[in-house]
Inverse folding.
């Protein structure tokens, strides 16, 4: 099942001489249960694409569909974006961005409550255990290590059982070993929890953990590249999908 | 999960510190309002306590509190004879300053017309009213003199038989109640040399008259301290207080107002004269300062609460990105602001209860202040919260993605 589909989305910043075309006719499809890497140099449009798919900064043109349901059409949200974020999306950032005055457990629990998950406290503890930080449930973010914070952030992103998790350079602040561990967690989450995970990363050493990679440059996205033995997990695109997901006009 | 309580739990020390700081500010504002109310109350307490319907004063004057008023004491009997008058009392009012040890104290002497007025309308907190026409005094507790203690005025001992609370003048001086005769004795106190000189002058005048020459035994009279020359007028009184039978006030007033030597005021008019004249400048000064202080406090309170919200901008952005409904963020802002306001107000009240009795002027927390202050605090906290909510709704969730 498609978690998200973007069709020909564009985004421009500035005007005239200062105009920057951050997204140029970008199309892609992410299937549930897939972990995808989004690669590219700085300024290539990766974060802008993450914001567009996360409905944080809407594209000016093109369409975005969640589970085949149009949510953005020609730059206009056709559904409640707050509700969509609550129901379909999970975010993980370069910094963990945990709410400073909540414990690890409460950071996950509040996401469960916002996502209207039943038994939020129990689910929060289950997710922390699942990600190996259950023993730090009562710790405040400032007392957690960087790796622990990212695990809590991933647990939080999973709280509402999202169909799409967007991660923007989640390992940038971690050392190699911890960074790989986090990437392994994303792969595990995608395959075990059935979510589509799109990870912006510069770390090419962990690409073997991804099912598919996308390369971006100058606001354009390249065709999906299947990686290693996981490539079979990437759904075969339909004719319509193929047109949308592999061309960068 | 209640976000406001979680935030407080995490930053309890800072929150309590902020509440204490705001509480200090509230305490100052409330104290100023209380001082203002105290000034008004002090200025008018005597007019209320003496429970008169009409005040008769010297013609062309505004009464004993505003300026000197001298009336012949026989006016008391004249007023009593007016149909409809049920009670007529002479009244004196004089402020004196005396030294006790190394300190000085100012005292407002109020003379009560013994035996008609023994101070039965004065609210006492200890002791009793006057029971004899000489040598007894009722004082305000703020002087710190207990019942049974004796104080000396004009060389005469006066036993404190009763205590009032908050019987003060518009200038904050404690009021002492004693008989009119005693108050006149104190006010007209003369040194021994002056008394002897006066007696000698009286004797000289007596010896120049036929009566004095014919009856030399009359020369013993000036030696008696209670004797007063018939040629000298009796000491004047400041006012005559009149109580009137029900529904006769207008009639009695019309009659007395027709006398050429007096002016008559109702108690409310005396009160207005006090507020518009005696304490007007002090009232305006403190009133304006109170208004400025209240506005300043309002701005500071709003900025403190608003800044608390600014500090949470990042957390709010995270919550918004997670899809937190606006109601949750609004609750966070309002609940914290209200709790902060309530704590600060409680702190201000507690602090006030501790320090207000130490103020040299009375601090009166009227019902308006006690009810109005928390409402104002609530409104301020709510206004600041609205600013905070506007800020929260404008927070760009995307800034979280920018690291």
């Amino acid at each position: 099942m498609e978690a998200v589909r973007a069709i020909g989305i564009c985004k421009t910043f500035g005007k005239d001489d200062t105009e920057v075309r951050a997204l140029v006719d970008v199309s892609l499809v992410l299937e549930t249960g897939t972990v995808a890497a989004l690669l590219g140099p700085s300024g290539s449009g990766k974060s802008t694409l993450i914001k567009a798919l996360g409905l944080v900064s809407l594209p000016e043109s093109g369409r975005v569909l969640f589970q085949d349901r149009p949510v953005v059409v020609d730059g206009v949200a056709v559904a409640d974006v707050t509700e969509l974020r609550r129901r379909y999306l999970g975010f993980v950032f370069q910094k963990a961005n945990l709410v400073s005055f909540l414990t690890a457990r409460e950071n996950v629990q509040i996401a469960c409550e916002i996502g209207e998950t039943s038994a939020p406290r129990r689910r929060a503890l289950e997710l922390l255990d699942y990600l190996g930080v259950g023993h730090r449930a009562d710790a405040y973010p400032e007392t957690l290590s960087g790796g622990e914070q990212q695990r809590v952030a991933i647990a939080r992103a999973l709280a509402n059982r999202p169909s799409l998790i967007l991660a923007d350079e989640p390992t940038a602040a971690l050392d190699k070993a911890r960074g790989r561990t986090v990437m392994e967690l994303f792969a595990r989450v995608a395959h075990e929890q059935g979510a589509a995970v799109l990870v912006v990363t510069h770390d090419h050493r962990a690409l073997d953990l991804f099912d598919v990679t996308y390369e971006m440059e100058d606001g354009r996205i390249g065709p999906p590249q299947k990686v290693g033995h996981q490539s079979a997990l990437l759904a075969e695109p339909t004719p319509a999908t193929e047109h949308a997901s592999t061309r960068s006009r | 999960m209640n976000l406001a309580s979680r935030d407080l739990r995490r930053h309890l020390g800072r929150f309590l510190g902020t509440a204490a700081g705001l509480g200090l500010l509230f305490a100052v504002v409330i104290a100023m309002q209380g001082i203002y109310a105290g000034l008004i109350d002090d200025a008018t307490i005597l007019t209320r306590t003496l429970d008169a319907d009409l005040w008769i004063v010297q013609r062309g004057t505004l009464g004993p509190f505003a300026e000197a008023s001298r009336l012949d004491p026989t006016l008391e009997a004249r007023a009593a004879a007016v149909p409809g008058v049920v009670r007529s009392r002479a009244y004196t009012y004089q402020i004196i300053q005396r030294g006790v040890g190394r300190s000085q104290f100012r005292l407002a002497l109020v003379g009560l017309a013994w035996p008609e007025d023994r101070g039965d309308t004065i609210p006492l907190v200890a002791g009793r009213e006057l029971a004899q026409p000489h040598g007894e005094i009722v004082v305000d507790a703020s002087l710190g003199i207990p019942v049974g203690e004796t104080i000396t005025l004009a060389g005469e001992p006066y036993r404190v038989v009763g205590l009032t609370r908050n019987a003060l003048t518009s200038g904050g001086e404690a009021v002492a109640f004693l008989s009119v005769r005693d108050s006149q004795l104190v006010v007209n106190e003369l040194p021994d040399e002056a008394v002897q000189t006066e007696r000698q002058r009286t004797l000289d005048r007596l010896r120049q008259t036929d009566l004095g020459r014919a009856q030399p035994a009359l020369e013993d009279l000036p030696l008696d301290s209670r004797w007063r020359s018939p040629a000298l007028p009796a000491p004047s009184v400041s006012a005559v207080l009149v109580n009137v039978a029900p529904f006769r006030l207008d009639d009695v007033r019309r009659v007395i107002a027709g006398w050429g030597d007096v002016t008559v005021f109702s108690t409310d008019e005396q009160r207005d004269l006090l507020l518009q004249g005696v304490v007007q400048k002090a009232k305006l000064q403190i009133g304006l300062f109170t208004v400025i202080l209240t506005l300043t406090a309002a701005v500071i309170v709003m900025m403190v609460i608003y800044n608390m919200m600014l500090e949470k901008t990042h957390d709010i952005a995270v919550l918004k990105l997670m899809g937190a409904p606006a109601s949750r963020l609004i609750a966070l802002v309002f609940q914290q602001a209200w709790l902060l306001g309530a704590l600060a107000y409680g702190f201000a009240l507690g602090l006030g209860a501790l320090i207000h009795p130490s103020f040299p002027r009375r601090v009166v927390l009227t019902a308006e202040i006690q009810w109005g202050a928390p409402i104002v605090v609530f409104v301020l906290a709510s206004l600041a919260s609205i600013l905070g909510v506007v800020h929260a709704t404008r927070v760009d969730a995307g800034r979280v993605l920018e690291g």
